[in-house]
Design goal:
The protein is an alpha+beta fold and 302 residues long. It has helices spanning 7-20, 29-39, 41-47, 54-66, 76-89, 127-135, 204-212, 221-224, 226-237, 246-251, 280-285, 290-300, and strands at residues 99-109, 115-125, 140-149, 153-157, 163-167, 183-192, 197-203. The chain folds into two domains: 2-126 and 259-300, no CATH class; 138-243, no CATH class. Helices cover 38% and strands 20% of the residues.
Length: 302
C-alpha cells in the first residue's frame, strides 16, 4: 500500500525511473525539497510579510530541514505546509526560536482498513515567536515571560492591586542558594500602551498538563528547549487576555498543527530536479564538475 512506504522513497523511485531513460541525476531528499520550495516560491512570496524575502525564507527553511534528517523522512506536503505556515506568520524556523518544524508519527488508516504510521511535520510556534506576534499588535508596550525555579523567591498577589515580585536564586540575599533546583512554574507580564497590564502565572503541573496534550511532548523543543517551551506555554495561555488583532489572535490557532493540503503538492507530485533547484552550497560540495571543484578549492584558501 502506498501509505505504508515513505514519500521520499516513492519520489526517489520515480526519479530513478526517469534517470534510467536519460541523463537526469537522482536527487537527494534535500534537493528534492529544495525543488519543491523553488516551485512554491511565488506562493511563499505572497504569504510573507514585507520585511522578509522568499529567498531568505527558503534558505532558512532548507537549513532547518537539513540539520534534522528526520524531517526528510516526513511527507512532502506536510513539510511544505510547515514552511508556508511560518511564511504566513513571518516567523523564522530554527535556532532563533521563532518556530519549529517537529517530525512525528501520525497514525492513519489505509484503503484496506489497516492502520499504518506516517511521518509528518508539526508546525510549532516558539516562545520568541509568540512574543514577536504579540508585539506586532501595536497595543503592547512590553511583554516578557520567565521560568521560576525551586530556589527562587516569588510572591504573587492578585486582586485590585496586582503585584509580582520574583528574585532569581542566584540574586537572593535572604538565603544563599547553591543551585536553582527544578523548574516550578512560569509567568508572563504584559504592559499595555493605555497604562494597563496583565500578569499570568502557571505552576509546573499546569504546564506539564499542556505538554501531555502535545503530539511532540517527547521530542522537539520540549526536549531541547524545555524552559523556552514553559515560557511559550504561559504566554499562549494568557493570549486571549491581550489587546491584539483578530488576525494575530487567529494566527496562534496554527500552532502545533500538521497539514497536508498545500495546493499543487501531493505525495505523487514529481518535478524535475535541475541545477536551478540545487542550492549554491550543494554545487560546491557535491561531486561535480572540475570548475566547481576549483571554486571549492578557492573557497578553502580564502
Amino acid at each position: 500500500m502506498a501509505g505504508n512506504s515513505s514519500t521520499q522513497d516513492q519520489l526517489a523511485g520515480k526519479l530513478q525511473q526517469r534517470a534510467a531513460g536519460g541523463n537526469t541525476p537522482v536527487a537527494s531528499p534535500a534537493n528534492t525539497i529544495a525543488a519543491y520550495l523553488k516551485k512554491m516560491e511565488g506562493e511563499i512570496a505572497r504569504a510573507l510579510p514585507k520585511h522578509m524575502t522568499p529567498e531568505r525564507m527558503t534558505r532558512i527553511a532548507l537549513t532547518t530541514i537539513r540539520t534534522n534528517p528526520k524531517l526528510l523522512e516526513c511527507t512532502v506536503p506536510s513539510l511544505i505546509a510547515a514552511v508556508m505556515q511560518s511564511a504566513q506568520l513571518g516567523l523564522e524556523p530554527g535556532l532563533i526560536g521563532h518556530c519549529y518544524f517537529v517530525p512525528y508519527n501520525n497514525k492513519k488508516k489505509g484503503l484496506d482498513g489497516k492502520d499504518y504510521w506516517e511521518k509528518e511535520v508539526q508546525f510549532m510556534i516558539g516562545y520568541k515567536g509568540m512574543i514577536d506576534l504579540a508585539r506586532r499588535s501595536g497595543n503592547i508596550q512590553s511583554i516578557s515571560a520567565h521560568e521560576v525555579y525551586e530556589n527562587d523567591f516569588i510572591e504573587l498577589t492578585y486582586g485590585l492591586q496586582e503585584d509580582l515580585k520574583h528574585i532569581p536564586w542566584f540574586l537572593r540575599k535572604d538565603q544563599k542558594q547553591q543551585a536553582s533546583g527544578d523548574v516550578t512554574g512560569a509567568y508572563m507580564v504584559a504592559k499595555f500602551n493605555d497604562g494597563g497590564h496583565f500578569i499570568h502565572y502557571m505552576p509546573i503541573q499546569e504546564i506539564e498538563s499542556h505538554r501531555a496534550r502535545s503530539k511532540s511532548k517527547d521530542n522537539g523543543p520540549w526536549i531541547t528547549d524545555y524552559t523556552e517551551m514553559c515560557k511559550k506555554t504561559v504566554v499562549r495561555a494568557g493570549w486571549k487576555w491581550l489587546p491584539i488583532s483578530i488576525e494575530i489572535a487567529s494566527a496562534v490557532t496554527k500552532d502545533e498543527t500538521a497539514h497536508n493540503d498545500i495546493s499543487g503538492v501531493t505525495d505523487d507530485t514529481v518535478i524535475d530536479i535541475t541545477a536551478t533547484t540545487v542550492l549554491e552550497e550543494d554545487r560546491l560540495t557535491d561531486p561535480v564538475s572540475g570548475d566547481q571543484r576549483n571554486a571549492q578549492n578557492e573557497m578553502e584558501f580564502e
